[in-house]
Structures are given as structure tokens and as C-alpha cells.
Amino acid sequence: MRNKAIVIGGSIAGKLAAKALSDFFKEVVILEAGEQRKEESARKQVPQSNHIHVLLATGAEELEKLFPNIKNELIELGSITSNVTQDIKWYHFGELKHRFKGDINIIQQSRLMLEQHIQYRTEAISNIIIQNGKVVEKLIMDDQRIKVCGITVKCLETGIQENMYADLVVDASGFHSKNISWLQEHKINVKEEKIKIDLSYSTRMFRLKENYCIDGKVIYVTPKLPEIPYGAIIQKLEKNKYFLTYIGYANERLPKNEEGFYDFSKKMALPDILEFLQHAEAISDISMYKVPYQVRKQFEKTKNVPAGFLVMGDAHTRFDPIYGQGMTIAAMESIELQKCLQQLNKIDKKFTQIFYASIAKIVDIPWEMTTTEIFRHPELRGDLSVKQKFQQWYTKKVYEVAATNEEVYSRLAKVIHLLCKPTHLFHPKVLFAVLLHKKN
Q1: Helix axis angle, 111-123 to 70-77, nearest 10°
Q2: Handedness of CA 202, 207, 211, 216 (dihedral sign)
């Protein structure tokens, strides 16, 4: 067993990475910039906590591998079980999807609840230590400058710096990670791919008044780019709470006050959003959140990438959050980390390269899915390749067919939840349905 691993960041990605590492290291230290977590309080480092989060079906499966029985525990605590094709009322590309009981089930809850329970499970692991109020200043390289052997850390309370050494350092400190600049100090340059999305969220939490319930467990009005760059999601949560989030692309102006929040519902294609507000009581302020870009760091293409330093979660790739892929990808990456540790004895450059190559394969599909959609808006794209033009044409046809065809909708849902690859949508049953389809 290896001696020590350090995880930078106490996010969900950080805790999942720590759990993966705990079976292979005598000691795993999580460094968290924020103060020790208090009950019912979100991490200040995660401003998106006050907005809707989705754990995709694949994410729930991978989470269960890391923390056995966690799904049942969350349900006992109040998580909502939802059948994807039956319990979600989905207005998508100008049509309402036909609902039926399918074979994909998910659990839905607030990010705060999920993160608190992962924290609880993590704290129960004896060789994981969480240190709060610590920020990383720089990476420490070995004498040959080919391996990261530690980090310089500053205590926020005292301002005192110290060096911490480890066999492996994992950066899971989120989108605002400084890993690019840390590596540049050692003349290691990592390329970034940035896609402009100019996404905004406006969210408020509600409780429903008596004798009213929404039509489903999620109501989703998806933006239809480019002509309708806004949408809305109502999500049922634990303790009879509901999130209503408005979504806007390309700097769409979203409401910041109570009157505007109510009036914006009248723009939606479904009357359910307005009806919900008429029967709901606000229990939080309105929270705003902006994501100007989705960003992917290409460590797998960095020839002089150092050994002993791995980057995961949003610190590696930040997706368009509307698709709910972030937490799921973090869980998939943690499982991949476990596999690498099982199969490879040394944490050397080969280990690092194999890990990043594996992560690239995990990221490739959701990255392509999100960019294909965002590039439908002329303000948010460059020149489209022939492949991208075909993808947009074909997926639009699939969306239209899926509104009434259960087989196609089921296959689409499996791709969205990362249970199947996009090639699942090229099955003859889908191809024939697409070719024969005529939009009403």
C-alpha cells in the first residue's frame, strides 16, 4: 500500500476521488479552503449549490460503486425517485414528449443534501483526513523536475505556509483551480479548449400550497436554440421543496426580482410554470449564476505532463451545466482512478498518461453532445464542420421523433444519461423512424 495522497478541494469530485484513493493509500488528506461544514449550509466555494443539480443514471451507478447502499440511504433521507420517461414532463424542440414508464430511474435531491451525505460517508473512512482553511500556493517538483512530490499550502487563519509531501496529488478544486498557472511555473503548458455559452441561471426555492401538485416530478421547458434561448425547470426535492430555475443563453436577461420572476413564467411554452407560481410559496431569495464558457483542459495532449499530479472534475473540464453531467463525470473519473491504481504499480509518467487518456475518453462524448447543441446559436459558434452540421440535423430529427416514438425516446434517454454511446441512436429502428418522419 502506498503512503500518502493529497486531494485539493473538498467538493463532491474531491470526496469521490478521496474515496477511490482510500483503498490504495495509508493516508488521504483532503485540503478544503472553506471552514468546517455546518449543518444545512452550502460550501461558499460552490455558488451553484443554490441551483438545480441532476445526478444522471450513470452517475448514480458509479456513486453506488464508491459508496455501497448510498442510493437507499438517500431515499430514506428524502430523495425523490423518478422514472425518466414517465415522471419528467419535457417540452423539447417545440413538442411535448409522450410519457410512459421506461427502464431508467434516477434519484433527485438538492446538491446540499447529496453533498452532506457524501461528506458523512467520507468522514466515516478512517484513513481520510479533512483539513479546512487551507489553500494551495504552488506545486513542489522533484529534483529531476518530472514528478510532483508535494504542494505548498497556506493556512488562511494564520497566513503560515508549509510544505506537504505525498506520493500523489489530485486537484479537484473546481473550475477556479489554478492548476494551469501552477504548472506554468515549471514551464509546463496545458492547452485549453473554451466554448462560449453565456449561460445564466435564475433560481428560487418554493413549497407548494395544500391541495396542489405538479404534473410529474420534473417539468422541463428546454431552450430551443437559436430562436428560443431561454427555458425553465421545476424539480421536486426532499422535504416537499421545489426548485424553479430559469435558463438563458447568449446573455438572455433573466429576472432578479419577485415581479420579474413571476412575469418571466409567461414566456414559457407550457402554462405549468405560471400555474406552479400561482400555487407555490417562496422560501428563499432569488439566486443568480453565470457560466460564460465551458472549458476543457487537454492534459492528455501535454507531452511533458508531470507524474504524480492528476486533475479531475470541474478542475479538468467544466461542462454546460444544463445537461447535468458534472457530478456524473466526477464519479466516472473516480472509478477510472481506482482502475488505474489497481492495474499499475508505479505512479510514474506512464500512470499519469494512461489516466489522462482514460479521462479524455470519458469526457469526449458529453463534450461533443453539449457543443453540438450550443453551436446551434450563431452568436455562440465558429464555422461548423460537415460532421457538426450532420449531427445537428440528425439529432433534431431524433428529438422530433422521440416526442411520440417510445423506442426512440428510450434510446435518447439512455444516451443523455450516459448509459449508452450516441451510436445507440443509429440503430435501424431509429434510422427508419427518422427517415420516415414528417413534422406536423
Answers
A1: 130
A2: positive
**In sequence order, what DSSP letters do the residues of 23-57 get, joined into one string?**
TTEEEEEEEESSPPPPTT---TT-GGGGS-----H
All domains of the chain in start order, with CATH: 2-53+112-191+301-363 (3.50.50.60), 194-292 (3.30.9.90), 378-436 (no CATH)
Residue 70 CB neighbour total at 10 angstroms: 19
Provide the pLDDT for residue 47. 56
Rounded average pLDDT over 308-322: 97
- H or E segment and range at residue 88: strand 88-92
**Beta carbons within 8 Å of 326's beta carbon, 6+ residues apart:** 313, 314, 318, 319
Cross-strand partners of 152: 138, 163
The reported pLDDT for the residue numbered 381 is: 76
User: By the 8 A CB rule, do 33 and 333 touch?
Assistant: no
d(CA 181, CA 415): 35
Nearest to 110 by CA among 5, 184, 203, 211: 203
Other beta carbons less than 10 A from residue 330's beta carbon: 26
The pLDDT value given to residue 35: 77
Q: From its phi and psi, is residue 293 left (phi > 0), alpha (psi between -120 and 50) or beta?
A: beta
CA angle 140, 141, 146 (to 5 degrees): 155
Q: What is the dihedral of CA 4, 10, 15, 17, to 10 degrees?
A: -60
Contact yes or no for 288/256 (Cβ under 8 A)? yes
The DSSP string of 233-277 is EEEE-GGGEEEEEEEE-TT-----SHHHHHHHGGGSSSTHHHHHH
- Produce one character per residue of 344-357: b if its CB has 16 or more CB atoms within 10 Å, e if not: eeebeeebbbbbbe
pLDDT bin (cut points 50, 70, 90) of residue 49 is confident
Asked if 104 and 84 touch (Cβ cutoff 8 Å), the reply is: yes
CA distance 149 to 165: 6
DSSP 215: S
Using alpha carbons only, what angle is made at residue 239 by residues 236 and 245, rounded to the nearest 5 degrees?
35
- In three-state secondary structure terms, 135 is strand
Q: For 257-267, give one letter per residue: b (16+ CB within 10 A) or e.
A: eeeebeebbee
Q: Return the residue matching grid coordinates 495522497.
A: 5
SS3 content of the chain, % helix, strand, coil (to 5): 40, 25, 35
